[in-house]
Amino acid sequence: MGDQGRSSTSDAIPITLSHHGKQHVFQLQPEATIKDLSNKIQDELSIPTANQKLLIPKLGLLKAPFPDPDFPVADNLENKKITLMGTSSADIESLHSASKAASARDEHLAAARRNQPKPYTTRRAQQDDAKYTFMALRPLPHLPRPERSLAFLERLRDDPGIRAAMRAHRFSVGLLTEMDPLAHTEETHEGTTRILGLNRNRGEVIELRLRTDAYDGYRNYKIIRKTLCHELAHNVHSPHDRNFWDLCHQIEREVDRGDWKSGGRSVGDAEYYEPVGSSEEVAYDHGGWTGGEFVLGGGNGSSAGDGALSRREVMAKAAEERIKKLADAQRKQNESDRDSSST
């Protein structure tokens, strides 16, 4: 009579999830589905189904509404290292309160900044800022809180040091976007190597790894900005040769000198080095690359689909945006000239 393993539907199977660094074990019947697991998470952890995201090795990210609600748990999730991302109802209320307080504080700081004297900007500098910049910014829409990634990309675009370096080298980048944390990550016996940035076709598209591996946070701003300096150098030199590193270090120094918001401190005497090893802080990329089409959220795809950006589309959007910014700058200058002549 001795049954082996799970011979009865009454034998529950354990499904282990990691949430905020804590392990949770859910006992489910062998015939349970992904919907049953989601309901159990909602009941025991108070995380609404709509807020749940399951990061599963080889399967990727699963979230409601599930493509297949009858997806069997026993055959696909048992004994797998699963990460649960989601916020409980109580935490959401707390976050809303904190967000309101932060918004009020940001509005106060913004008002204070508006009253501060701004650095002198010539008409030529305004035109150069509209021309030598990132023509489009796009977060990945399938990742949580894309508006936060967009704000991060805007901060990089508007960074005074980055703008100064872009003008100095006449860099115009078609698209600046974020990289999916699941992409360009390699596990070896020496550890984990993470590509921090990619540059396609010398500035047609630059991708940056903004988020942490768990999707719930962002990497250090100065590290990402330094990665962007690295990728901008690939606008000129694809391989990591001596010419590339000389330009990369030059851009880094220019960015630091041009960052007047940090006091305009010069780091011209600082020592720079070529990255080696597999540390995530120095694994920038494997050099500039060419070819293929960029599909938003699709990595280095070579075929176009929905959301694909051809080189013609990128450059057309860039030209439209550049013309619009130049026209706005000219209109403001004309208004200023009329005001001056009337006084």
Automatic annotation (TrEMBL):
Domain WLM: from-to ranges: 125-324
Region (Disordered) residue spans: 101-126, 324-343
Family annotation (InterPro entries): Ubiquitin-like_domsf, WLM_dom
A Pfam family annotated for this UniProt entry: WLM
GO molecular function: proteasome binding
The organism's place on the tree of life at top rank: Eukaryota
PANTHER family to which the protein is assigned, alphabetical: DNA-DEPENDENT METALLOPROTEASE WSS1 HOMOLOG 2 (PTHR47795:SF1), UBIQUITIN AND WLM DOMAIN-CONTAINING METALLOPROTEASE SPCC1442.07C (PTHR47795)
Protein name: WLM domain-containing protein
Lineage, top ranks: Eukaryota, Fungi, Dikarya, Ascomycota, Pezizomycotina
